[in-house]
C-alpha cells in the first residue's frame, strides 16, 4: 500500500512538472506578441519597453527564463515564495488574486456537488431498479436533455425565466447578485440559481452513470447468490448492488470537483460570480496572459491533486484494486 | 445464404430503435441545411449573416424580434439571426466532424500499432496515452487558445486563433480515448482463431491488420465517433463562448456570448442559437446511445 501511494505521488509530481513545462511553452514560447509591449500599456516609449523587458527577465535566453519560471512556481526553490507573475492590466500579483477568489469557487462547487449527488444518485438507483418503466424512461429522457444542453445556455434560460430583476417569474436572485450580497445568507441565496443549473447537468451524468453500473452489477452472479439466499430485494439492491456500483462514482466525483475548483469558468461567467473562473474569463477578454497562465496552472494543480486523492481513496474502498 | 457482416447485424439492431432513427434523420437534414445554407438564405429571402439591416432596429437602436423579413429576429447590430444560426450549423458540424475524424484516424492508427505489435512500441504508446488522459487537456487547451488569441497569433503568426486551434484541441483531447479503446480491442482480436487461420494461410501482417482486424473494428469506431461528435460540438461552442474559439464567422457559442447581456431585451438572440446547439447535441447523443445499444445488446432488451 505504501509503495502504491509512493508511486502515485511520484506520478502526480511528474504530471505537475510536465504541465508546468507545457504551460511555459504555451505562454512564453508560442505567442508571437511581445509581453513587454503588452505590459507597457498604450503607446509606450522604447526606453520603457526596454526597462520592462529587463524587469520581467525577458532579456535572458529562453532556457534561463524557463529556470526562473520553474523556480518561481516551486515553493522550496523560490527565494520569496510562489510567484505566478503579475497581471498586465492591474500589475497585481496573480497568486493572491486567485487565492482571494478561491472561497467563492469552493462555495459554488460545494453547493452544486451536494445538490447533484442528492438528485443524481437516487434517480440513477430508481431507474436501474425499475428499468424500462415510464419513470425510468422519463428520468433518462430528461437526463439526456440536460447532458445535451450547455451550462451557459441553461444559465441564460434560467436568468430569463426566474431572475428577480428581469425574469418572467421573478423568484430568484439573478445575474451578479453574488457580488451585491453582503451576508453569507445573501450570498447563498444568490447562488441558488447557479447551483441548480450546474447541478442539473452533473446530476444527469451521475444518474445515467449509476444506472448503467447498477444494471450491470445486478446481473452478476453474486447478486443471484444473494437472492437465492432469500435476502429481501431491498437488501440485495442496496447492500450488495449499490455498494459495488457506486465506487466508480468516487472517481468521477473527484475529477469533477477538481475541474470545478480550478474555476467553474462557464457557470461563473454566465452568472457573473466573482470566482476563479470569472477572473480567468476577464483575463481572456483583456489578453492578460500572466493571469490566464496563473489560473491554468492553478486549475491543473487541482485536477492532478484530486485524481491523486481519488486513486488513493479508491484503493481503500475497493479491495479489488491491485497495488 | 451469405453470413451477415458485423456491420449489417449492427444496422439491423439499430434500425429497430425508432427514437435513434428519427434523430439520425434529423442529423441528415441538419447536414443538408448546413451544406445548402446559402441556397436556403436566398429561398427564404434573408440577408447574409454579416449584413447589418438597420431597418430591423427600432428607433432606439434596439433589435426587433422575429418578423416575416427576419424569422428569428436580428441581433444587437442588425444581423439576421436565422442566417447566423444556419452558418453556425456549418461551422459546428465542420469543426466537430474534422476534429473527430482526425482523432479517429490518429487514435485508430496508434491503437492498432500498439495492440498488434505489442512490445516496446506498445509500451511507448500506452504511456503517452496515460499521460494525455491524466492531463487537464481542456484547461491547457483553453490556455493555448487564449495565448494564441492575441492579434499576433502563435509561432510567429503561423498558428492563428480560430478553427485550427479548436480542431487541434479536439484532437488532443479525443484521440487518446480512441487509441485506448482500439488498443484494447486489437489486443483481444489478434488472439482470435480467424487471425490464426489467416496467418496459417500465409497472410502477412498488413493483410491481417487491414483485411481481418480492421473490419471488426468498424462498428465500435462508428459508435465511439458518434459519442465524441456531440462532446466536440459542445467543446467548440464553449471555447467560442469564452471568446477563444472561432471569431471570424458565426458560431453558436459566440452568439450565446454576445447575447449574454441582452437576455432581457432580446430573448431571441440567445434562444435560437441555444436551441440549435441543444437540439443538435441531443440528436447526436440519441444516435450515439442507440448505436451503443445496438453494439452491445443487453439481455434485458428484446432482440
Description:
The complex is a heterodimer of chains A (323) and B (303). Chain A is mostly helical. Chain A folds into two domains: 2-77, no CATH class; 94-317, MetI-like fold (Orthogonal Bundle). Chain A has helices spanning 2-29, 35-40, 46-55, 62-73, 94-129, 134-148, 151-162, 177-180, 184-190, 192-217, 221-228, 233-245, 247-261, 265-271, 276-285, 289-317. In chain A, helix 5 (94-129) packs across helix 10 (192-217), helix 6 crosses helix 10 (192-217) and helix 7 (151-162) runs parallel beside helix 14 (265-271). The longest helix of chain A is centred in the middle third of the chain and has 36 residues, at 94-129. The N and C termini of chain A lie close together (6 Å). The mean pLDDT of chain A is 85. Chain B has a single domain, classed as Orthogonal Bundle (MetI-like fold), CATH 1.10.3720. In chain B, 69% of the residues lie in helices and 0% in strands. Chain B has eleven helices and no strands. The two termini of chain B are 21 Å apart. Chains A and B meet through helix 1, helix 6, helix 7, helix 14 and helix 15 of A and helix 6, helix 9, helix 10 and helix 11 of B. Chain A: Keywords: Cell membrane, Membrane, Transmembrane, Transmembrane helix, Transport. Chain A: It is a multi-pass membrane protein. Chain A: Residues 102-314 form the ABC transmembrane type-1 domain.
